[in-house]
Amino acid sequence: MTAVWDRPVAMLGLGVMGAGLAERLLDSGTSVRVWNRSPERAAPLGARGAAVAATPVEAAAGTGATIVAVADGEALDGVLLGRHGVLADGGYPGILLCASTVSPDDVPELARRASGVLDVGMMGNREHARAGQLRLYVGGDASVLAAARPLLDLLGKQVVHVGPLGTGMRLKLLLNLLMGVELQAMAEATELGVAGGLDRQVVLDAIAHSGFAAPVMAFKASRLASARFGDPDFRLRLMAKDLALAVAQAAGAGLRLPVTEAASRTHQAAVDRGYGDDDCAAVIRMVGAAEAVGER
Question: Which segments of the protein form a coiled coil according to its record (predicted)?
Answer without folding.
Answer: none
